[in-house]
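Example for tutorial group B:
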């Protein structure tokens, strides 16, 4: 399959920070009342379900875009894997510094640079398990009383450790919905 001519997906310019406060009408998930511990547990659950998706029998379907401008399940998975890495960096920064501003991360550039469209889903599976597992483990290690430490995105959005974790979980779960495997709890 030739990937060089693939169109880029629509850039995701939506600000999703509202998902911390309201149930998402698309994936049905409400994260706003979850504790750090609950977010950690659900992140681990979602990681296992992502691995199940990526180990599905129909590899061709896992690599196929449902529409030229919509990511394949494998591309979404690679995105989620990298979101885990980026958010772990942000979490560590919030715990190390007072009210840091996060470095920008261009998810569409990351998809091109990371060759998401050429990846083997079997190889993304361990990456997603490691990335999400590390984030969940770090959440469990946040010292008592530190969950309200703050940080900013460069666009001004403010997060606490808790809302960053909630936001992250929604992203991970929303993309399971995107690939047709809503989180089973
Ligand atoms: Zn959602």
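The residue assignment follows.
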């Amino acid at each position: 399959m030739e990937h060089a001519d693939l169109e880029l997906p629509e850039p995701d310019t939506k600000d999703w920070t509202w998902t911390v406060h309201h149930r998402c009408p698309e994936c049905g998930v409400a994260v706003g009342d979850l504790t750090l511990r609950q977010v950690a547990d659900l992140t681990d659950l979602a990681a296992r379900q992502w691995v199940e998706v990526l180990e599905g029998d129909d590899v061709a379907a896992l690599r196929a875009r449902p529409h030229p401008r919509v990511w394949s399940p494998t591309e979404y998975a690679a995105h989620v894997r990298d979101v885990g890495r980026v958010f772990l960096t942000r979490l560590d920064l919030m715990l190390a510094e007072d009210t840091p501003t996060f470095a920008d991360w261009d998810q569409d550039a990351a998809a091109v640079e990371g060759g998401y469209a050429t990846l083997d889903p079997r190889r993304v599976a361990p990456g997603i398990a490691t990335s999400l597992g590390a984030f969940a483990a770090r959440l469990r290690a946040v010292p008592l009383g530190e969950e309200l430490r703050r940080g900013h995105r460069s666009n001004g959005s403010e997060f606490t450790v808790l809302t960053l974790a909630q936001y992250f979980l929604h992203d991970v779960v929303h993309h399971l919905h995107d690939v047709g495997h809503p989180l089973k709890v």
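The radius of gyration is 16 Å. Compare this with the pattern of hydrophobic and polar residues in the output above.
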